[in-house]
Amino acid sequence: MTVTDVEEAITRAHQEEWARVVAALTRRYGDLDIAEEAAAEAFATAVERWPAEGVPPNPGAWLTVTASRKALDRIRRENKRDDKQREAQRMYDDSSTEPLGAIDDDRLRLIFTCCHPALAMEARVALTLRMVGGLTVPEIARAFLVQETTMGQRITRAKAKIAAARIPYRVPSAEDLPGRVSGVLAVLYLVFNEGYLATGPDSEPVRHALTAEAIRLTRLIRALIPDDGEAAGLLALMLLIEARRTARVSATGELVTLDQQDRGAWDQAMIAEGHGLVRERLASGIAPGPYQILAAINAVHTSARDVRDTDWTQVVALYDQLVAIDPSPIVGLNRAIAVAELDGPEVALATVDRLEDRLSGYHAYHAARADLLRRLGRSQESRAAYSRAIELAGNTAETAYLERRRDQLG
Amino acid sequence: MQYMVSVIDEKANNGTQEEMDAVDVFNDKLIADGYWVFAGGLAAPSTATVIDNRGDQPIVTDGPFVETKELLAGFWIIQAPDLDVALKLATEGSKACNRKVEVRPFL
Q1: Which of left, alpha, beta for B103 (phi over 0: left; psi -120 to 50: alpha)?
Q2: Which of A138, A317, A382, B107 could be disulfide-bonded to A373 (CB atoms 3.0-4.6 Å)?
Q3: Residue B87: which of A91, A96, A118 has the nearest Cβ?
């Protein structure tokens, strides 16, 4: 076995086994802190020993056993073994809850704990990336442009609250499940969006590590709760957006809008998988939630070989469906942008202008207005709208695109 | 595990008869289901007296120790196996007393 083979085996084991090891240890010892530290030590030991001793036949089992030993060492060191074990039984005794059936998986417990609604959204995101995703604190800090110490404290505080307030380590009851699943999906979508539309003047326009991690975790959720339509919808949505990643930013670092993208550069495998999921949900006959509708909209876009072949009637019909369940102004804005392709920019502009009260602080509102005004030949107003959008935009590629469009106005 | 469920109000008042009745029903349910430890309503913060006996002489001061827009109007102490159960009970409590509540674990 070569050095590269061992490195690959370690990377693969980290991706496949990290969450499983942390989840199993959390269940056994009832303490996220101990589980996290012991898992990290076990992987460090693997990095140290596998190159010389070879990759064990069952890396997952090896890592779990090694991590368990590390956890016990720490508990003994702290001389709190009895306390901890009693605590573990008391804290996470699940015998009283109803049988969990097919979705009883330690990793699922871990995800639900990390995404608990009693934690602040930013803590949920950080904790999920650390505990479930296995990203290091410096990696997460870099991704969200905060100091390592700040991110470390955020995670420490969240773990302390979980322990002190006794946030349970279990899959929610059937009655609470839909609401809690949607909370988990919201965390994953936020991670994806931060990767896809990275904010901050000094950051890469697309942070692939975050989009890839969000997709990987959504795949896991989808595998753990295969009957959940929104989990499938979110996975499809992410895949259909991620498929266009390389076409979306030009060589000079500028955003390339959907109509200008080189469709030949789209990732066909991801598109096929995304379309497959959308078809599967349509075939279920169950009314779709927002992620499924957004995935369907993206499926329409990715089905058109040329932007002129886009079925805008279908896109607008899907937005109508989305507005009916999510009447937010942002959905209204996106619907208006699609309406411009069907009924022309004047009709769309009238709709967009009605959203001013609620969206005047949102860069995409001004960018959409600027584009519609430009198409109507109202250059001066368009220029002002572009300027406002540039002031508010946080993504470097988007700013570059908006500046060029503004400067092109006659 | 015990949790304190604090009732948060913006002005001192005793609540309407309807609210009091709803709280009575909720309390009976807490007792029947074994979650009840203690509960009570508090008089207005203006009735409070602060004592500081850390020095040589006790110092007695009129009024609440901190003036805030929101005040503690009352509380429940409940016994619950974990935060999810506590939150569920607090959700019912908030509905019953028609006020915001805060859930905080005891050490």
Answers
A1: beta
A2: A382
A3: A118
